[in-house]
């Protein structure tokens, strides 16, 4: 029943974006990485390794070295034990670990004829709410907001912290004032602000429909964040400043009410689910987001979000940023991503 892994194939890819991604931590206009394909007993499992060091993964070189090591020692292992056996070797390469975990979860759930989300959690949802990702504030027009609202999104995410804080606050206040009822903005400063600038923003946003702010502070000191969070009537979130994975992760010591989990930064689906469970029982909110990966990474990430569940929109509406993809990607509809009942992650490569 538990067939041995016959081989691991590594297919490099280089996908252009429709338009450049921008943030206070820099941007990119292509996504480069490797599609992983693991074969065992006539079944295939897929994973995506697409490092993005600015978001907390290893470098491309480190990922490539780790993939080469995997290629020589994955064959002959069982899909159940492979990740555990390789875990030490992958400790410093979370995007590579994520790719292997996804490929194995895809394969293992196909073997049991289960959607990946059910393999992660018995009570997984079949759809997840998602936010629109509109990009940097300075490029957003009222027409962009209107289009996202008409598409059914309830939470619209905007990148801030790319320009002078007071200029940006005026612009944001103008846009927020145009929103129809029931729509809110999620802001992501990607660590751009001083404590003073962050405080002025939070005070300036009072009364506006703000859903949350990710990474407000340059220096994400938990006491500073806790003081800011105290004065905000919406959650602040930590994302790229989360401490690296450890068994002793304490979500209540972060200073904020929400964490953003990018499984390619955390180092896998199973691990991300453990962190999420831990956070949720402590009363900390959890949002899962992509790294603007290919469909091979976005499908399993959406399956993880469905396994975690909850009403808060996840950052998974990113397929539209890519001009080309490795296969059909999860597409939002009415502000939701609906997951198929088929076995595995849902990813199938273009032939
Ligand atoms: O959250 C989303 O809607 C999309 C994901 C996202 O914003 C992101 C994607 C790649 C790198 C960093 C980030 C980020 O949240 O900072
Ligand atoms: Mg973020």
UniProtKB/TrEMBL annotation:
<comment type="function">
    <text>Converts 2-succinyl-6-hydroxy-2,4-cyclohexadiene-1-carboxylate (SHCHC) to 2-succinylbenzoate (OSB).</text>
</comment>
<keyword id="KW-0474">Menaquinone biosynthesis</keyword>
<dbReference type="GO" id="GO:0043748">
    <property type="term" value="F:O-succinylbenzoate synthase activity"/>
</dbReference>
<dbReference type="GO" id="GO:0009063">
    <property type="term" value="P:amino acid catabolic process"/>
</dbReference>
<dbReference type="InterPro" id="IPR029065">
    <property type="entry name" value="Enolase_C-like"/>
</dbReference>
<dbReference type="InterPro" id="IPR010196">
    <property type="entry name" value="OSB_synthase_MenC1"/>
</dbReference>
<feature type="binding site">
    <location>
        <position position="214"/>
    </location>
    <ligand>
        <name>Mg(2+)</name>
    </ligand>
</feature>
<dbReference type="InterPro" id="IPR041338">
    <property type="entry name" value="OSBS_N"/>
</dbReference>
<feature type="active site" description="Proton donor">
    <location>
        <position position="159"/>
    </location>
</feature>
<comment type="pathway">
    <text>Quinol/quinone metabolism; 1,4-dihydroxy-2-naphthoate biosynthesis; 1,4-dihydroxy-2-naphthoate from chorismate: step 4/7.</text>
</comment>
<keyword id="KW-0460">Magnesium</keyword>
<feature type="domain" description="Mandelate racemase/muconate lactonizing enzyme C-terminal">
    <location>
        <begin position="138"/>
        <end position="235"/>
    </location>
</feature>
<dbReference type="InterPro" id="IPR036849">
    <property type="entry name" value="Enolase-like_C_sf"/>
</dbReference>
<comment type="similarity">
    <text>Belongs to the mandelate racemase/muconate lactonizing enzyme family. MenC type 1 subfamily.</text>
</comment>
<dbReference type="InterPro" id="IPR013342">
    <property type="entry name" value="Mandelate_racemase_C"/>
</dbReference>
<dbReference type="Pfam" id="PF21508">
    <property type="entry name" value="MenC_N"/>
</dbReference>
<dbReference type="InterPro" id="IPR018110">
    <property type="entry name" value="Mandel_Rmase/mucon_lact_enz_CS"/>
</dbReference>
<feature type="binding site">
    <location>
        <position position="239"/>
    </location>
    <ligand>
        <name>Mg(2+)</name>
    </ligand>
</feature>
<protein>
    <recommendedName>
        <fullName>o-succinylbenzoate synthase</fullName>
        <ecNumber>4.2.1.113</ecNumber>
    </recommendedName>
</protein>
<feature type="binding site">
    <location>
        <position position="188"/>
    </location>
    <ligand>
        <name>Mg(2+)</name>
    </ligand>
</feature>
<dbReference type="GO" id="GO:0009234">
    <property type="term" value="P:menaquinone biosynthetic process"/>
</dbReference>
<feature type="active site" description="Proton acceptor">
    <location>
        <position position="262"/>
    </location>
</feature>
<comment type="pathway">
    <text>Quinol/quinone metabolism; menaquinone biosynthesis.</text>
</comment>
<keyword id="KW-0479">Metal-binding</keyword>
<dbReference type="Pfam" id="PF13378">
    <property type="entry name" value="MR_MLE_C"/>
</dbReference>
<dbReference type="InterPro" id="IPR029017">
    <property type="entry name" value="Enolase-like_N"/>
</dbReference>
<keyword id="KW-0456">Lyase</keyword>
<dbReference type="GO" id="GO:0000287">
    <property type="term" value="F:magnesium ion binding"/>
</dbReference>
């Amino acid at each position: 029943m538990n067939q041995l892994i016959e081989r691991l194939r590594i297919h490099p890819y280089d996908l252009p974006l429709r338009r450049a991604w921008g943030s206070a931590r820099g941007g990119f206009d292509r996504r480069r990485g490797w599609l992983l394909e693991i074969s065992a007993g006539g079944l295939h499992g897929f994973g995506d390794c697409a490092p993005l060091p600015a978001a907390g993964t290893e470098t491309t070189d480190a990922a490539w070295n780790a993939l080469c090591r995997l290629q020589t020692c994955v064959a002959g292992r069982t899909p159940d034990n492979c990740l555990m056996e390789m875990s030490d070797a992958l400790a410093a390469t979370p995007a590579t670990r994520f790719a292997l975990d996804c490929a194995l979860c895809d394969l293992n759930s196909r073997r049991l004829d289960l959607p990946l989300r059910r393999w992660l959690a018995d009570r997984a949802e079949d759809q997840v709410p998602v936010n629109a990702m509109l990009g940097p504030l300075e490029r957003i027009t009222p027409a962009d907001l209107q289009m996202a609202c008409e598409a059914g999104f309830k939470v619209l995410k905007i990148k801030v912290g790319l320009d002078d804080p007071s200029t940006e606050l005026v612009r944001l206040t103008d846009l927020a004032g145009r929103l129809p009822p029931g729509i809110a903005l999620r802001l992501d400063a990607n660590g751009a602000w001083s404590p003073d600038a962050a405080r002025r923003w939070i005070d300036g946003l009072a009364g506006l429909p703000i859903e949350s702010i990710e990474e407000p502070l340059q220096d994400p000191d938990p006491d500073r964040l806790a003081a800011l969070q105290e004065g905000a009537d919406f959650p602040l979130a930590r994302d790229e400043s989360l401490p690296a994975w450890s068994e002793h992760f304490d979500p209540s010591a972060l200073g904020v009410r929400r964490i953003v989990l990018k499984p390619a930064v955390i180092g896998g689906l199973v691990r991300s689910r453990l962190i999420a469970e831990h956070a949720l029982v402590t009363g900390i909110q959890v949002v899962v987001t992509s790294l603007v990966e290919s469909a091979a990474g976005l499908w399993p990430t959406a399956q993880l979000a469905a396994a975690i569940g909850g009403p808060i929109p996840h950052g998974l509406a990113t397929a539209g940023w890519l001009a080309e993809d490795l296969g059909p990607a999860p597409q939002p509809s009415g502000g939701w991503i609906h997951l198929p009942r088929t076995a595995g992650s849902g990813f199938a490569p273009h032939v």
